[in-house]
Amino acid sequence: SKDKLEDYSRTLEQKVEKRTTELRKVNQELAANEATITKMLKDLNSVNRELTQTKNQLENTFKSMVDRAIITIDPEGRISFYSKGSELIFGYEAEEVVGKKWVQEFFTSENGFLFILLEHTREAGIYKGETELIRRSKETFPAIITITPLKSENGVLTGYTLIAEDITQKKKTE
Question: What pTM was computed for the model?
């Protein structure tokens, strides 16, 4: 009985030692994974800070450009960004138009004209041309417009950027 107890004790100690070794190995792997995850989180935070900084710089650049209207729209034509230059050129405040399908109201042509331009842009990758636009005051003016598609990382169309330059003064001097 004493021998059985000693055998049992040895077997139990071996099992505990084996399990302790296994747990140490798992703990080492977890520590290595924790270090990797911590590094990844730091890297992601750094990239996020850089992206936020770049986004802010771009927004500030767009806001400071007052001689051109810069407007972004979603695929359905709803305005998602409307620059200070847009406010000055068209006469609407950003709060009045962002989130609304107003962009077609800036064109003097029939409502379908803008969507024809967007279709051309989607196929060609860019549209640049001269057209007549209309201000809030209903005054029309000549403009050079450039439309480019906005796409996600995997190529899905997410909207368009429309840049309009009022060329009224240039036309008067011609």
Answer: 0.66
